[in-house]
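Subject: START domain-containing protein structure
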Amino acid sequence: MRGVLRMTLLTAAVLGFAGTAMAEDWQLAKDEDGIKVYLSSVPGSKYKAYRGVVDIKADVQTIGALQDDVAGSCKWIHACGEMRLVKQEGAGDSWTYSKIEMPWPVTGRDVVIHVTVEKTADGGMIRHLKGDPKAVPAVPGQIRVPKLDGEWRLVPKGAGVTEVTYQVQTEPGGSIPSWLANSFVVDAPMNTLKELRATAEKR
């Protein structure tokens, strides 16, 4: 289940394009309502990677539980159209399938993500996201995202506050209009973190 959400989150990120591992030169693109979004160029890709950072007034366990709620997570993930668990092996190793909603006339995307969970020494958590496009057969009417790398990093800051970082690099497959690519890399982390925060802080 945890993998599902992670994937889901990735899903939203899917369009975020390009660069967790290779992105290095992060530039602040938007700072709004306590959420900072950074973008980075990625060598060999025309799409930028994105990273969103926010402090949420909730502990790691509360946020982790929201990410494990596959059915409910689509409500706070930007552009999430559908999300489901494909396979789970143990508590921290799963595969999820997600559909990403695209504005007309852009063809919808879908993504299969292998999610692994790492517990950190400080009581935090990292959900590693890796695209696995061949794990699920092609779906008619969807363009499969061929590459995605990312992570969700939860770091406890004390007093019930968690720093959440959402970072993704991806190649969306097919052709994406420049206006959509440019807006998505900012909107995906901004809107996802904003909705996640609002949901977590109601708990």
